[in-house]
Design a protein that fits this description.
The complex is a heterodimer. Chain A is mainly alpha-helical. Chain A has one domain. Helices cover 74% and strands 3% of the residues of chain A. Chain A has a two-stranded antiparallel sheet. The longest helix of chain A is centred in the C-terminal third of the chain and has 51 residues. By secondary structure, chain B is mainly α. Chain B has a single domain, classed as Up-down Bundle (Sodium/glucose cotransporter). Chain B is built from 20 helices and no strands. In chain B, helix 10 packs across helix 19. The chains are: A mainly alpha, B mainly alpha. The interface between A and B is large, with 73 and 81 residues.
């Protein structure tokens, strides 16, 4: 538990640095393609544990703190872990990267879409102005909506892949290790 | 419509039913009956498979026949629909898909209930999810009934009734026997068929015009009888200010509603991780965007080749534009090519409705069993019982949808779909966004957000010209119309957000910092995700 704790705060201290360690990232990624779309070894135990009486021997289902009622002291300890992770610099970095992309992007496409709908319904004369051949402003604006949607999708996927995924995966591991540590301590 | 069409279309459609039933049997042979398997298909689909399945879930017959038909009749105004349907996916991709995958297990209520007192929140979110799903289902059933009447010439009431009952029975079989895994494969098969059919028709249209889009548009404008106005907005919604506000309301509902549709949200749980959920949305945006671009070409193609008047003569709502276009592209009525293409389009449309109906039924049976039933009984019953309830719920919802589908068979399909989107945007989206992003959100706020959106949306529809006071109303004889717009979104969506905010600031409950931390950490990192 202690080492992972250090790793958590360490990752926060030089999170930019951590992102630049492409070598480490590649190593980790290189192991995954064998099982496509599956990058968490914990997944199996968790998935099969739920809802199947046979999974009773596996302790993992208990690692879902919110979903089931727990003994009184266990949730508090797990809650402390989540608060601790939330306040760590590494998590704050991931969160602010997500928000710095998503907030302006959502504002931009909503304004652009609403402007398009409102203009089309209130100022059809403006939209009917011809531009090239039989294409008018309305036609180009409509195709522009398709184009911006595709572009924003690509930009978001790229941003998430390069700027968030690895840091988030590390945090996931650390958090799960911490919650498991808490749980192990509570049960013994 | 000659007998050849009918025979061939019925043959193709029977093949589709046989294949899908085969898939269902094959999948259910391997089942264990766990909730994970029934609701989420074991969570092991690849992003590409799930992307096709999402596209299959989303592209209903209303898009395939409806959008092209509206374009064939009113030109540019039909394009506005497709833009709204597509841009909505950015809301899903940016704000919902990954976070919901990380936080939840099977339903919308899972995400909200993780932070709140579980019982009231689950009952509220479960109720609104079931309401939205049933509205969506009724729209599809009505569509199935009128499609049969249109395409197979079976205009008799009995044929329509039996079609609705048949579609309902098939969907119950798919869902209750095959669960999410069968439903997903049916969506994938349907998406491939639909995209294949659309690509083929679009190619034929483009070949006919030698790839000259400009000439396609000019011909469409000439043959529409509206001239240049056909290529600009205003033909359908450019009348008085009421109809303009109505369209803005619909536009708002379309763009915000997708992220609140229960059957779309449940699709994210069929992949192993949030990253896979994101990649499946990227796939589906590509597929859906491409599909709508082709639907626009088909709509203008129908106006140019078939002619707006001929389309309107066949069906006043324009729903037959694509089948008529197929007939023309294949060489006209009576030719072999025309017969084959027409039958293919008819079969694809059937497949589309069946698959969408199965997806929605599954999502609503999950809401009934996992949210409503699980909250209203003791928590200690074994999970296996919940799946049995879900299977039963699928049967019950099938029966309700058949009944309502028969009652509402004269309602406009596009309106019903728009209504389902409006209710989803008013009741489901505010509570979802608040619980993912608002630190101070409380249980009372969550419950108020759901009911504060759901009740106004439903009440405003009851008071709208759709239900009473007009010639095309459900009850033309009486007049209790007090709300001028057909779509309630413009009013009810802000009310949903407002009610959630008021409920939160007036609630004595102190928001639980730790629960918020947990939701935030889990949603962005995937820690503890199943």
């Amino acid at each position: 538990m202690q080492p992972s704790n250090d790793r958590l705060s360490g990752a926060g201290g030089d999170s930019e640095n951590a992102v630049d360690h492409r070598g480490a990232a590649d190593l980790r990624c290189a192991e995954t393609p064998a099982s496509p779309g599956y990058d968490d070894p914990w997944y199996d135990a968790l998935a099969s544990g739920w809802g199947e009486p046979a999974g009773a021997g596996v302790p993992e289902p208990a690692a879902l703190p919110s979903m089931r009622p727990e003994p009184a002291q266990a949730p508090r300890a797990a809650a402390d872990v989540y608060l601790e992770v939330q306040h760590s610099a590494a998590f704050q970095e991931v969160r602010s990267r997500y928000r710095r992309f998503v907030v302006p992007a959502v504002a931009a496409f909503l304004v652009w879409y609403l402007a398009y709908v409102v203009t089309a319904t209130t100022a059809p004369a403006l939209m009917a102005r011809p531009v090239v051949g039989s294409a008018n402003v309305a036609m180009l604006a409509g195709l522009g909506q398709f184009l911006t949607t595709f572009l924003l999708t690509w930009a978001y996927a790229r941003h998430a892949r390069l700027r968030r995924d690895r840091a988030a995966l590390e945090l996931r591991w650390d958090t799960q290790e911490l919650t498991r540590g808490v749980r192990g301590g509570a049960s013994s | 419509m000659t007998g050849d069409h009918q025979t061939l279309a019925l043959l193709l459609f029977s093949t589709f039913v046989a294949v899908t039933l085969g898939i269902t049997t094959w999948v259910s042979r391997h089942r264990h009956g766990s909730a994970e398997e029934f609701y989420a298909g074991g969570r092991l689909f690849s992003p590409m498979e799930n992307g096709f399945a999402i596209a299959g879930d989303y592209m209903s017959a209303a898009s395939f026949l409806g959008i092209s038909g509206v374009i064939a009749l009113y030109g540019y105004d039909g394009m506005l629909y497709s833009v709204g349907f597509l841009v909505a996916w950015l809301v899903v991709l940016f704000l919902v898909a990954e976070l919901v995958r990380n936080c939840g297990r099977f339903t919308l209520a899972d995400v909200v209930a993780a932070r709140m007192r579980e019982r009231p929140v689950r009952i509220a979110a479960g109720t609104s999810s079931v309401t939205v799903s049933v509205m969506y289902l009724v729209a599809q059933m009505v569509g199935a009934g009128s499609l049969v009447a249109l395409l197979l010439g079976g205009t008799s009431e009995a044929a329509r009734t039996w079609t609705v009952i048949g579609v309902g029975a098939l969907m119950v079989i798919y869902v209750s026997l095959g669960g999410m895994r069968a439903t997903t494969w049916i969506q994938i098969v349907k998406a491939v068929l639909l995209l294949g059919g659309t690509v083929a028709l679009t190619t034929l249209v483009l070949v006919r015009f030698h790839g000259d889009l400009d000439r396609l548009l000019r011909t469409a404008a000439e043959r529409s009888g509206h001239g240049e106005a056909f290529l600009a907005p205003g033909l359908a919604y450019g009348g008085d200010w009421t109809s303009r506000f109505d369209f803005i309301s619909l536009g708002l509902a379309l763009v915000l509603g997708t992220a609140g549709l229960p059957h779309i949200l449940s699709r994210f749980y069929t992949v192993p991780t949030a990253r896979a959920a994101r990649r499946s949305v990227v796939w589906s945006i590509g597929l859906i965007g491409g599909f709508y671009l082709m639907a626009i070409v088909l709509g203008f193609g129908a106006a140019a080749l078939v002619g707006t008047d001929a389309v309107r003569a066949s069906n006043a709502a324009g729903n037959t534009a694509v089948p008529l276009l197929a007939l023309d592209l294949g060489g006209g009525a009576g030719s072999t090519g025309g017969t084959v293409l027409f039958a293919v389009v008819a079969a694809v449309a059937f497949a589309t409705i069946l698959a969408v109906v199965a997806g929605v039924t599954l999502a609503s049976s999950a809401s009934v069993a996992h949210d409503l039933y699980a909250s209203l009984r003791r928590r200690d019953a074994e999970p296996r019982g919940e799946v049995a309830v879900a299977r039963l719920a699928a049967v019950g919802i099938g029966a309700v949808a058949i009944g309502l589908g028969l009652l509402a068979r004269d309602l406009n399909v596009a309106f019903l779909v728009g209504l389902a989107f409006a209710v989803a945007a008013s009741a489901n989206l505010p509570v979802l966004l608040y619980s993912l992003f608002w630190r101070g959100f409380t249980t009372r706020g969550a419950v108020w957000a759901v009911y504060g959106g759901l009740v106004p949306a439903v009440v405003l529809v009851l008071l709208s010209p759709v239900v009473s006071g007009g010639e095309q109303s459900l009850f033309p004889g009486v007049d209790f119309q007090y709300f001028p717009l057909q779509n309630p979104g413009l009013v009810s969506i802000p009310l949903g957000f407002l009610a959630g905010w008021i409920g939160t600031v007036t609630s004595p409950e102190v928001p639980d910092e730790a629960k918020h931390a947990e939701t935030e950490v889990r949603s962005l990192t995937g820690a503890g995700a199943v």
